């Protein structure tokens, strides 16, 4: 188990199972002994009968001795680490300990692993003394994200003559979590992202000034340095300044998992690119102190609207990565479930990873922008992702939808929308949002941007929100 826990001692098999463990050599000896006994009866040769009985008795004695062997062997498994990104290796260490008073014979170990992690590891251990232990290790690797069981560990016992082999399994197993690969993103500040720190205090200062902060009565335990002497003189009792708690900026990462919106399968498919992009974005924003939640087209959110960043960003990032390790295609036909969640309140920054969008779904996605401080969309170019090696086009279950139409609808709704082609680099696309004039530290350009996508200049209040965005 992870962390070095011990597995239970394998259960002993029955006598019938022990007879079933006869090897080819043992079965051959038994058959030869029976044949010799029959021939001795037919030929009347007593010496041949003795030979036949010896040949037949040897494998049976080995089976009985192996069945009655009271080996008590404990096993443990340690994963290092228990959560790895795709295409990375994890080390599995096995520990076998002989807790009986008798030394063991030759032990053969086999750990069960899924085929995507590689072949099943097998080890041969020499005699283990009473109270002794042996340690072996192997490595596993997967290009596909997911949760993979390891174990149970199998222990194979054999007699010195190789007549019989018994397999005994331990009862516990462990799980290796393969999460999407994440890429470091440049420190770009997407439009409309509120800083979330001190905004309420700045508004109070602008209205009343530093000395006119609304005070409250003194409470036991308040810091005396917060005493507001002017209000104390006015009210005749101790009054302290009311300190507003900083509001943490929120961000929602929307992942489109509709089966009809993605084509292909495997680690290089469009869907896997979107999952890895969502993971990289969520981890990046958590590291910069934002409150991040993951939302899918089904309306399911993790960890929820109150997910925290900052000090708890490591735990939240682990929760999000574990969720993305298991995310699969949904059977939803549209994005209405996600829209219903987003229209319930101000979600701050919204970053979406869309699959193929038709005009209807692009319109629904455009309305998600209404309550968001900013919205950045990465739209998969389905027409480009259907191109195979050498320009061969693979047919899909649905007609191809040009990406230009959905991009235009999203941009008219105020989104910063960028197309995603096969082999696209998420850091470059992330940086392109700033080059397109969407950062609060740069004015929105009126002409075509230098990045790979043309983003129209937001007008009216949308432009004011872009100029007021905070840093990500």
From TrEMBL:
InterPro entries per UniProt: DUF58
Low complexity biased stretches = 459-472
- The name this protein carries in UniProt is DUF58 domain-containing protein
| Domain of life, per lineage | Bacteria
What Pfam families does the database record attribute to this sequence? DUF58
Q: What is the lineage of its organism?
A: Bacteria, Bacillati, Actinomycetota, Actinomycetes, Kitasatosporales
Q: Which organism is it from?
A: Streptomyces celluloflavus
User: Domain named DUF58: which ranges?
Assistant: 216-303
Residue ranges for the region (Disordered) are 178-201, 430-472
């Amino acid at each position: 188990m992870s962390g070095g826990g011990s597995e239970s001692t394998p259960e002993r098999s029955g006598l019938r199972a022990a007879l079933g463990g006869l090897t080819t050599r043992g079965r051959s000896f038994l058959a030869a002994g029976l044949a010799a006994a029959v021939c001795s009866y037919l030929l009347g040769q007593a010496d041949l009968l003795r030979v036949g009985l010896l040949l037949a008795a040897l494998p049976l004695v080995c089976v009985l001795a192996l069945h009655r062997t009271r080996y008590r062997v404990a096993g443990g498994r340690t994963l290092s680490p228990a959560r790895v990104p795709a295409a990375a290796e994890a080390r599995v260490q096995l520990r076998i300990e002989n807790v009986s008073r008798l030394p063991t014979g030759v032990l053969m170990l086999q750990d069960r692993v899924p085929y995507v992690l590689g072949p099943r590891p097998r080890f041969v251990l020499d005699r283990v003394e009473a109270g002794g232990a042996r340690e072996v290790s192997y490595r596993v690797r997967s290009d596909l994200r997911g949760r993979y069981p390891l174990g149970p560990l199998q222990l194979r016992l054999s007699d010195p003559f190789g007549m019989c082999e018994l397999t005994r399994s331990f009862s516990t197993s462990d799980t290796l979590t393969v999460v999407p690969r994440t890429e470091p993103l440049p420190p770009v500040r997407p439009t409309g992202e509120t800083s979330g720190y001190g905004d309420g205090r700045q508004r109070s200062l602008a209205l009343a000034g530093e000395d006119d902060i609304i005070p409250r009565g003194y409470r036991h335990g308040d810091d005396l340095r917060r005493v507001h002497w002017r209000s104390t003189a006015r009210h005749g009792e101790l009054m302290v300044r009311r300190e507003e708690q900083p509001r943490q900026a929120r961000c929602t990462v929307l992942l489109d998992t509709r089966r009809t919106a993605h084509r292909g399968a495997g680690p290089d498919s469009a869907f896997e690119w979107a999952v890895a992009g969502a993971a990289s974005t969520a981890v990046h924003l958590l590291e910069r102190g934002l409150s991040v939640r993951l939302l899918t087209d089904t309306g399911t959110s993790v960890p929820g609207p109150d997910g925290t960043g900052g000090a708890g960003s490591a735990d939240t990032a682990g929760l999000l990565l574990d969720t993305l390790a298991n995310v699969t295609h949904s059977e939803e036909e549209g994005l209405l479930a996600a829209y219903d969640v987003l229209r319930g309140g101000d979600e701050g920054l919204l970053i979406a990873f869309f699959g193929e969008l038709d005009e209807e779904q692009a319109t629904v996605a455009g309305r998600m922008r209404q309550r968001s401080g900013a919205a950045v969309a990465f739209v998969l170019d389905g027409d480009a992702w259907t191109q195979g090696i050498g320009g061969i086009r693979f047919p899909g279950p649905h007609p191809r939808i040009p990406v230009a139409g959905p991009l235009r609808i999203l941009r008219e709704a105020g989104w910063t929308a960028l197309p995603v082609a096969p082999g696209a680099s998420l850091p470059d696309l992330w940086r392109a949002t700033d080059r397109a004039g969407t950062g609060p530290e740069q004015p929105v350009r009126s002409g075509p941007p230098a990045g790979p996508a043309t983003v129209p200049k937001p007008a009216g209040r949308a432009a004011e929100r872009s100029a007021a965005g905070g840093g990500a």
